[in-house]
Amino acid sequence: MVGINCKWVTPCVFAIFISSYLCSTQHTVQAITGFRPCDALISAGFTDRVILATSEDYEDRVAGTWAANARFRPWCFVQPHNTQELSGIIKALESAGSGAGDWHIAVRSGGHHFAGTNGIANGVTIDLAAMNSSSFDPENKIASVEPGARWKDVYSNLLDIGNVTVTGGRDGNVGVGGFLVGGGNSYFSGRTGFGADNVVNFEVVLSNGTIVDANTNEHHELWKALKGGGLNFGIVTRFDIQTIPAVDLAFGSSVISFNHSDRVIDAFVEFADLSEELGADAMIVVYTHDMELNEEDVIVVVRANTEGNLNTTSFDKLNAIPNISSEWVHRSLADIANSSQIEGNIKVSGAALTFLNSPFIFRYAVNLNKQLISRFSRSLGAENFGAQMFIQPLPKYFGDIGERKGGNVLGLNRIPSNAAIWSAGIWIKNGTDADLAVIQAEVHAMAAELRFFAEKQDTAVEFVYLNYADPSQDALGSYGPENVAFMKEVAKKYDPQGWWQRRTPGGFKLSRVDD
To answer: Residue 98: pLDDT band by 50, 70, 90 thresholds?
Structure first.
């Protein structure tokens, strides 16, 4: 160590350590982050893909997560640009080991789930935003879409290059990856099943960095498990999806007074019992409190016909209800998705349940929701929060379509009759974390009371839609014991060391589901 003149022992030891480190690596001192997994990525040649807190675009990456209360600041982000890079990143992170430290990995495509699902503080966030391409194979009528793409961009691009579309998200800013491996409810679900049912091939990076294709011919069990199984088997880097000829949808919404709530519920219940022959029609009922949009609380009913039929009779009962305003026109899915982006940068808490199709449970839910809004109006001020309660049809034939397309792990065939997904969310823009804690407690108490009422009415359904589920729920377990056992066998085969279970703890994990 010529040239080092140490006055004290500790600085001398430190200098020797640094000198030894630099001699043993190919990197300059700027490569020393002090964080083992970030250093492993840099040592593996991913310097240009690593985003540290000192990087100019670090805060932009933090803001890439939709809800303000779900934004974490990891030790570093890493942004792969293609499948091969992601494979190398996984190998590098695996080689970093664990030691006695407590660091983990998050994976984010669009960032639209509860806190901790796709973000992390102590560790690395793999940000898939740069993997956002979509393409179309006209011969096989297949769209290939990367996980970091947003649905509004996918629809717009596929419309331009092939005049086709796919079964995807309704909010244009939602990411492709999480939506599809969570199942993926869509305007098209009455015709094509959930979004995942239309994926004919998944390109997947496994925990050892191996890249495989999962489809009906190879790795068939992995193909099925990924249709609803979340991040338990690998990271999907390309979804090959059956396309649909693009037509302008018949689309619109009606804004209706709360005074007509009972009639809206009756119209919804009748709609949710319609047969698969009318599967081109879709409806979502939204009870809304948002004083920035309306001075009074209103019911917004979104409706669509995915074949573009303005004369469908499925909405006749709804259309007979007096409304404040109503629209029913032809619009492209790309245009709809682009204008249907729920504002982010808010603190939000929500809950979701599934019930058999019954007016009694929905009326009870409306009353509970009104009471909740009244309490928050007194405590927070009516103008300081927003609230939405959604009711969406889940007819039994949705599950039948999935089975005809090779099956999935959602367990919808376990639901005895037509059902509906209920969800509720409360958000604040300028409130405190203490306010959010109260909101979370109140929303979950409401959900628990609603679940208890449904059980007494024999309308409760075990299924929990993963993409709406909150961290207190067992979404994977709600698929049923056979599907859980199947997914665990698949995970054991493709991730024998359980890397995804212990290294990527966010979201819903099979290791936390009881056998």
So the answer is: low
